[in-house]
Design a protein that fits this description.
The complex is a heterodimer of chains A (about 475) and B (about 100).
Chain A: E1 2-7, E2 12-19, H1 21-38, H2 51-58, H3 60-82, E3 92-97, E4 101-108, E5 112-114, H4 132-145, E6 148-152, E7 161-170, E8 173-184, H5 196-200, E9 208-214, E10 228-242, H6 248-254, H7 260-294, E11 297-299, H8 302-322, H9 327-334, H10 338-344, H11 346-366, H12 372-386, H13 390-397, H14 400-424, H15 436-442, H16 446-458, H17 463-470
Antiparallel strand pairs in A: 1-2, 2-4, 3-4, 5-11, 6-10, 7-8, 7-10, 9-10
Helix pairs in contact in A: 1-3, 2-3, 6-7, 7-11, 7-14, 8-10, 8-11, 11-14, 12-13, 14-16
Chain B: E1 7-10, H1 14-19, E2 24-29, H2 35-46, E3 50-58, E4 62-65, E5 69-72, E6 76-83
Antiparallel strand pairs in B: 1-2, 2-6, 3-6, 4-5
The chains are: A alpha+beta (about 475), B alpha+beta (about 100).
């Protein structure tokens, strides 16, 4: 058997398997023997038909096809042993020639990333400044939230809340008869009837008023639609919206604050933390984008994008399923199939993939590796978080795959930190690396392997980590 | 009878595979064909020299379908043709 490879674009490799005439003849004869056993060939006892009789009965092509089914995978596996590439996904049979035998299989190989001078990438870090206006705005919202409706003894105005009885009739037909219904008076409101709100304005509490209103043609009450209704309104209560002033009292009302200044300080702190978190996450992406720009080469097979898209779709399905929405229903609600949705998110999946590849490569270049104790600590943390399922969780995580997946998550978050440090120019100098060859040999398979365990086990406990790494 | 109506089909079975090792080729032939006609047909059609021809009438086989219905295929004539040493017929008999 002779195996040659041919490098194509997009991380694809053509693996060409060639066999001598004698080798392929042997395979064909083996197949023919099997066919003779399994099928009745007229004139021969089962299993006794010679090669030529089998070929005569089924045709040469059929025997060849059968031989390919029987031996194709075996040949492919053997060929994979011989080549220098690690397949990233399933190969795709391109073509087969029989005389001489030559089989071409296209396989995707793991993504390849050359970062270039990633260490000199610098991006300014600018968290948003928290202005006094922002705090004022926040307090204003808070004030609105704590507003109350207070009964007043004055005629109703727009914006008031009123309690009233409404009775509407057209001739003998009673179209509505509601007691004690609550309304917030608004300009141009159409419920319960257009013009009703305007009529109520100016009425003092306790008053009763009779007036006529046109019922619109489109009204769902067909007996009344288009007619003139006589409406009787009895107004019980008028309430006014009482918004508390921004003062120490509000501070004490919304929480455990001593004074308004106390509250303001706390609001500032909260907003600042939020802004910082937001900025950190945006910053990470900005630096990653800059590194993508700086990268000399980043090449990946289309299958990697598919895998990334599939991963995020599965994650979505799982999280919806956790909320009691099975995938079939989800897709019906979205009005599209899983496949078409995957197509839709392909470009964002591709972006995530590119960033993750950079992260992986940075982790490799920088030799980032969590200490076993750190992994232990992470496991403890997740077990604690699992609450009632703690023992199950521990069982799952203590397996080699569980550890690998956690290690992978940790490596990613370490890489994220490192990327941000590099962007700020705060990264520690690189330590002396071990033999670079060894690193190159050992690591490239990692990205291919990490996707699967991450999807199975690592997810759910720490989604923000894998997502932050990806998005 | 036309020369080309004599031979009907080659008989390809385990047994005839072995007979071929003795340079004997087996055909189903027309029931009324005689040995001379068979010899001539083989020589003309396959361009080989024939040493001898043996023939036999094959008894029809009976097969019962269900309890009563008996089906018989018609009887047929089989010819075993021995070729002169060194002659071969490629068609039908050897790998396609």
């Amino acid at each position: 058997m002779k195996v040659t490879t041919e490098r194509l674009d997009n991380c694809q490799v053509n693996v060409i398997i060639e066999l001598d005439a004698s080798e392929i003849d042997k395979k064909l004869r083996q197949t023919a023997r099997k066919l003779a056993r399994d099928f009745n060939i007229p004139g021969y006892r089962p299993g006794r038909a010679p090669y030529h009789a089998v070929v005569r009965t089924f045709g040469r092509e059929a025997v060849q096809q059968q031989a390919l089914d029987d031996f194709g995978n075996e040949l492919y596996d053997q060929a994979l042993e011989e080549i220098d590439y690690e397949p990233y996904d399933m190969g795709d049979l391109q073509e087969v020639e029989w005389e001489p035998f030559r089989m071409t299989v296209q396989i995707p190989i793991p993504p390849e990333v050359e970062l270039g001078d990633y260490r000199s990438v610098r991006v300014p870090f600018e968290p948003e400044e928290i202005t006094d206006e922002a705090i004022e705005e926040y307090l204003e919202d808070m004030r609105e939230e704590h507003a109350q409706w207070v009964p007043v003894e004055r005629p109703a105005q727009m914006g008031d809340e009123v309690v009233l009885d409404i009775k509407g009739t057209t001739g003998d037909h009673v179209m509505m008869d509601n007691e004690n219904s609550e309304l917030i008076l608004e300009e141009g409101a159409t419920y319960p009837m257009p013009g009703l709100h305007e009529q109520v304005v100016g009425m003092p509490p306790g008053q009763e008023k009779v007036f006529e209103l046109e019922v619109p043609e489109s009204d769902s009450d067909e007996a009344a639609a288009g007619k003139t209704a006589t409406v009787t309104v009895h107004l019980h209560t008028v309430r006014e919206r009482d918004v508390p002033p921004v003062d120490d009292e509000l501070a004490m009302m919304v929480g455990d604050y001593e004074s308004l200044d106390d509250l303001k300080a706390s609001v500032r702190e909260r907003l600042e933390t939020e802004a910082l978190e937001q900025a950190e996450s945006e910053y990470l992406n900005a630096v990653l984008e800059a590194m993508l720009e700086a990268a000399e080469r980043i090449e990946y097979p289309p299958q990697a994008v598919d895998r990334e898209a599939d991963l995020s779709v599965s994650q979505m399905e799982r999280s919806m399923a956790a909320q009691g929405l099975p995938p079939e229903t989800l897709w019906r609600m979205m009005g599209k199939s899983r496949e078409s949705y995957m197509q839709d998110i392909r470009s964002s999946a591709e972006q995530r993939l590119r960033r993750r590849l950079i992260l992986d490569e940075v982790a490799r270049q920088e030799g980032l590796e969590p200490e076993p104790e750190e992994v232990d600590a992470e496991i403890e943390l997740m077990v604690e978080m699992a609450g009632p399922e703690a023992s199950q969780m521990r069982e799952m995580l203590e397996t080699p795959q569980g550890r690998a997946s956690i290690t992978q998550d940790l490596v990613i978050s370490m890489a994220q930190e490192r990327v941000k440090e590099i962007g700020r120019g705060e990264a520690p100098p690189l330590e002396e690396k071990p033999a670079p060859d060894a690193a190159v040999e050992a690591e490239p398979e990692e990205p291919a392997e990490d996707a699967a365990p991450e999807a199975d086990s690592g997810e759910g406990q720490e989604p923000e980590q894998s997502e932050a790494g990806a998005s | 009878m036309n020369l080309y109506q004599v031979l009907k089909r080659p008989v390809l079975t385990e047994k005839t595979d072995f007979q071929r090792d003795d340079n004997k080729y087996v055909f189903e032939v027309d029931r009324k064909a005689n040995k001379l006609q068979i010899k001539e047909a083989i020589e003309v059609i396959f361009d080989v020299r024939v040493e001898s021809v043996n023939t036999m009438i094959m008894k029809p086989k009976r097969r019962r379908m269900g309890r009563k219905l008996i089906v018989t295929r018609p009887a047929w004539k089989r010819a075993v043709v021995t070729l002169a040493p060194g002659e071969r017929i490629q068609e039908f008999f050897e790998g396609v």
